[in-house]
UniProtKB/TrEMBL annotation:
<protein>
    <submittedName>
        <fullName>Uncharacterized protein</fullName>
    </submittedName>
</protein>
<feature type="transmembrane region" description="Helical">
    <location>
        <begin position="98"/>
        <end position="116"/>
    </location>
</feature>
<keyword id="KW-0812">Transmembrane</keyword>
<feature type="transmembrane region" description="Helical">
    <location>
        <begin position="74"/>
        <end position="92"/>
    </location>
</feature>
<feature type="region of interest" description="Disordered">
    <location>
        <begin position="187"/>
        <end position="220"/>
    </location>
</feature>
<keyword id="KW-0472">Membrane</keyword>
<keyword id="KW-1133">Transmembrane helix</keyword>
<feature type="transmembrane region" description="Helical">
    <location>
        <begin position="39"/>
        <end position="62"/>
    </location>
</feature>
<feature type="compositionally biased region" description="Low complexity">
    <location>
        <begin position="187"/>
        <end position="204"/>
    </location>
</feature>
Amino acid sequence: MYEIKGVRATPGGRISVRFHQHGYVERPDRRAGRVAETLFGEGAGCLTALVLLASVGLFTLLRKNGAPEAAVTACMWVFVVAVCYGAVIALLHWASGVADVLLIAVTFPALLIPGYRRMLLRRWRGGAPESEPGWVPGAALSGVWHQVDPQGGAVVTVQRTDGSVTAYVPPADKARNLHDHFDTLLRQGRPAPAPYQQPAYGAPGYPPQPWQGNPGHRHD
């Protein structure tokens, strides 16, 4: 799976494009979601863990070398803040799982509806991308073009088999990646040409051999 965020699609607005083996998914790229992912996502958790380790090492080093008390105290406060921030991130992820359980418990009768049941299974297990809203199979692509935008950047234009055309303007450093992933899906979606098979000897269409001469010319 490969995802490119901050893509401006026409039509479609600002989206993120997530590529899978046999297709891609377009998702609205909302500002609130980007902020939440930046502040409380996996990246923030990893950074917080690094700050924790660094603060512990620095605290030990400062105490060992007899550093000023103000520096030691500041390092200790960095550690405390990092612990609290990490706890908030862990609590939010835990609360997200609890919310899913409560949602199922409250809406239990609605599980009799197949569409609702599939939606919950997708959310609970991270189901196949083919079942996500915005899924486009690679076989639906008929053409991909990469062009330089006169206003700056690049435009990746995609045409589907139904005739619809979408222009994607990604971040400048992602334009080539976006085009290459679309192009890969396009090539995979096209049927491979059948291998050439030479007709059997003597069958119609069998090419004459040099030693056979021209079968249409008779020597007297």
